[in-house]
Amino acid sequence: MTRPFPKTPEFSGSLYRPARFEGSVFDLEVEGRVPEDIHGTFFQVAPDPQFPPMRGNDIFFNGDGAVHAFRFANGAVDFQRRYVMTDRLKAQRAERESLFGLYRNGYTNDPRADGVHMGTANTNVVQHNGRLLALKEDSPPYALDPVTLETHGLFDFDGQLTSPTFTAHPKFDPETGAMLCFGYEAKGEATPDIVYYEIDSQGRKQREIWLRGPYAAMIHDFAVTRNYIIFPLMPLTPDLDRIRKGGNHFEWQPGLEQVFGVLPRDGDGTDVRWFTAPNGFQGHTLNAFDDGRGRIFVDMPVTDGNIFYFFPQSDGHVPPPETLSSRMMRWTFDMNNPGNALSMAPITDFACEFPKCDPRYSGHEYRHGFVIGMDMTRPFDAERLGAPPFQFFNLLSHVDVATRRVKSWFADAQTCFQEPVFVPRSANAPEGEGWVIALANRLVDQTTDLVILDAQHMDEGPVAVVHLPVRLRMSLHGSWVPAAA
Ligand code: V55
Ligand code: FE
After folding, report:
1. Which ligand 1 atom minimizes the distance to the CA of 476?
2. Per-chain mean pLDDT for the chain
3. How far is ligand 2, taken at its centre, from the CA of residue 168, in Å?
4. Which of 45, 49, 62, 445 has its CA 20 to 30 Å from the CA of residue 124?
């Protein structure tokens, strides 16, 4: 018997109350017209704890991964949702309760979880070499069947993975289909080791580079250009003593700088150069490219303090979210100049996150970015909703990074968006011509819609709104897989 979930913000409200169900809906209700040229599947994953937390509360990042598939063909959309059957979830289902304690801290688990792999597969889903991979950065991927969403299990690339960890944010070379990926804490918990892999479209490891960071830190996302790899070390550090004592895996370090490791793709770990900038919170990378002459450009939102209130600094302080300022930034690294040759300039004047580019331009010079944004000067239904929930984004936006022109859609005072995907109109369409698809949470109605917008005319609002008959919990990342794949 499952006891009620706690009434904490992490487990309540329209975004965070666990959804818990598995199932499918054939032929969703559509308002407007779903363009017939959208043919493929929008996969995404939500952390969705199956059982109430054993310690009374828990963080969003610790939920069990539940995968969503929205399958598009001929103007219709079918929906399916299944949990990733991780070793962890199977062990908990057998006991009908939570057996795992603090996020990434095995010392706080129930003894019945001893020896059970801790991966939750809750952060991102990508397709590679015929497998759907559900990813969590402290674990190897879980492989799923892309058609049935059945879980095959932990996947180590047929023995080729040499680290216990694997990023939730791999990139794909648009020319070769190779997966460009890495692990951090790659020689065990709290180690400063980093490993980079290139795995070709047939699943064969073509490159493996090991390096050591100046210290261990969270490396949530990264960037790869034609010639370089860029690792942002966030000022969030693990500490083995603290973990052993039952403390948080990560702690915010207000005294640490932002650190970037940059290495050539054809080099080895000794070729890495470290760049630093004042303390800040590096978000997800929108895209990155180099000019072939040693100048590297990385676009990512940067916030001037700790967004992760659940990983406070040592004195327990977390900045109130309304005091934090955040913008999309362009970092420029100049490999021709010695020293700390980096600079940073804003691309947007508003807070945005969950960025996506046209995947055909990943790692290459590009113009078009798609983000969800936050504009608190817009109306917000505080009367019925109270304070905005964690990860509240009321804009769905197109950012032209060349002209800095932004086109946004604001739905209403009760709606927030989740990470979009960009779908090209056709395989050969010009960059950024196509569709943007995203989930919209109707916070007062407690329902969830899928919205589809013309990527070049986002300010005109959706061409189709697809209604789910159920509410989905807040999810994280996902990807578009064309039917041809
Ligand atoms: C993030 C998310 C995670 C995690 C570490 O968004 C970092 C950043 C959903 O889990 O484990
Ligand atoms: Fe992420």
Report:
1. 9
2. 97
3. 7
4. 445
Mean pLDDT of 242-259: 98
Rounded to an integer, what is the distance from CA 376 to the centroid of its chain?
23
Q: What is the pLDDT of residues 135-185, one digit of tens each?
A: 999 999 999 999 999 999 999 999 999 999 999 999 999 999 999 999 999
C-beta 476 within 6 A of ligand 1 = yes
Q: What is the largest CA-CA distance in the chain?
A: 63
C-beta 227 within 6 A of ligand 1: no
CB-based contacts of 150, cutoff 8 Å, min separation 6: 82, 85, 144
- Write out the DSSP string of 155-171: --TTTT--SS-B-S--E
Rounded CA-CA distance 255/349 in Å is 26
Q: Is the CB of 220 under 6 A from ligand 1?
A: yes
The CB of 406 under 6 Å from ligand 1? The reply is no
Ligand nearest to the CA of 138: 1
Contact by Cβ (8 Å): 29, 48: no
Q: How far is CA 327 from CA 85, 122, 232, 277, 352, in A?
A: 37, 26, 17, 16, 6
Instruction: Give me the residue label for tokens 């897989």.
Output: 481
**Cβ(47) – ligand 1 distance below 6 Å:** yes
User: Can you tell me the distance from the alpha carbon of 48 to that of 474, in angstroms, rounded to the nearest whole number?
Assistant: 8
Tokens (6 digits) for 226? 């034609």
Vertex 327, ends 325 and 331: CA angle to 5°?
Answer: 125
Ligand 1 atom at minimum distance from 122 CA: 9
Residue nearest to atom 10 of ligand 1 (CA): 61
DSSP conformational letter for 13? H
Q: Does residue 480 have its Cβ closer than 6 Å to ligand 1?
A: no
**255: how many CB neighbours lie within 10 A of its CB?**
7
C-alpha of residue 383 to centroid of ligand 2, in Å = 31
**Interval 275-323: pLDDT, tens:** 999 999 999 999 999 999 999 999 999 999 999 999 999 999 999 988 9
> How far from 245 is each of 108, 109, 242, 295, CA to CA, in Å?
9, 12, 5, 44
Asked whether residue 347 carries a pLDDT value surpassing 90, the answer given is yes
**In what side-by-side order are the strands of the sheet with 223-224?**
223-224, 228-233, 258-264, 273-277
Q: Which of 369, 366, 483 is closest to 426 using CA atoms?
A: 483
Q: Which of 10, 61, 167 to mutate to test the pocket of ligand 1 (most atoms within 8 A of CB)?
A: 61
Give the number of the ligand closest to the Cα of residue 45.
Answer: 1
> Residue 353 has which token pair?
């996150």
